[in-house]
Amino acid sequence: MTELEAIDRCRQGDIAGLHVLYELHRMKVYNLSWRMLGSPQDAEDALQEIFLKVFGRIKNYRGESAFSTWLYRMTTNHCLDLLRRRKILTFLGFENAPEVQDKKDSEKAVNLGLSSVVAQALERLPAKQKACLLMREMEELSYEDIASALQLSLGSVKSNIHRAKAQLKEVLEKEGLSREDA
Amino acid sequence: MKRTKKERDIIKVLRQMADMAPGAGVFERIWYKIEERAASRANAGRHIVWRPWGHPVRWVVAACLCLALTGTLYHAVSADDNQALAEYLLSVSNPTAGVEHDLGVLKLPVLLTDPSTSASNLLKDADDEHSNVLAGDEILL
Fold first, then answer.
1. Do B6 and A55 touch (CB under 8 A)?
2. Is B16 on the interface with A (CB under 8 A)?
3. Is the pTM of this model over 0.90?
4. Which residue of B4, B13, B19 is in closest CB contact with A118?
5. Chain-centre distance of CA A116, in angstroms?
6. What CA–CA distance (Å, rounded) separates A123 from A126?
């Protein structure tokens, strides 16, 4: 079954269609959610919620953009909503604040390699910067798609990506120095 | 725009992250949950009759519209009642008001309230008393 056929079947309420879409996109959605939310458990929950949303809202997909773009847009917005909700709950005291990694942890991360340093640096980025960077570099979406997905201007998307990269570079430089020191 | 080595490294890591697989059986477990929930939703959907609004702002707008409609109806009904009451009070306080509009009936109120020109002048002449009384009777009749 092709993606288009799967979309059509999904529109008719056939869960087999959703299964095909899930098989095709689960990895990207899972990884994007993981990097956005910061933990694999949250990513698993998000993956579940997102595909249930897809099943409910597939009728709204008009085929103007690629299905993957529509899906990643939904994923990013879902993760941003979760982060916003988490921030409010933390502020009201219903949820514990996410643990800030201390210096020892970051020193440990040096030994784990570049990918874990980048992963840790990603967690410290503001939600919008993180979303823009991940959509651009992980999902390889165009600036226009990111702008429409996040309801931002094109300039704002570019500046968010630039700032995120600058911050990551800064972290890498620091880690590089500590490696040299070690 | 030329990318620095660090930037290239970051992008490479991010692209690798996109294809990192979780532990074995994770996706299968998640799919099982999705399938279960989607099926229960599909069944629940058959019993839901009406779900009109999806946002609290719309609830407020709908409540305002409802209030405005009720207010307009109430105002129209009370205006009708007031008009009916005014007409009733007018007809009770002045029952003959409508009589003069009826062309087939004698203008009795005029004769009753203003008798000076007809009957009183005729009664002055004693000689013609009988004829005057008759004339007065005729007029009054």
1. no
2. yes
3. no
4. B13
5. 16
6. 8
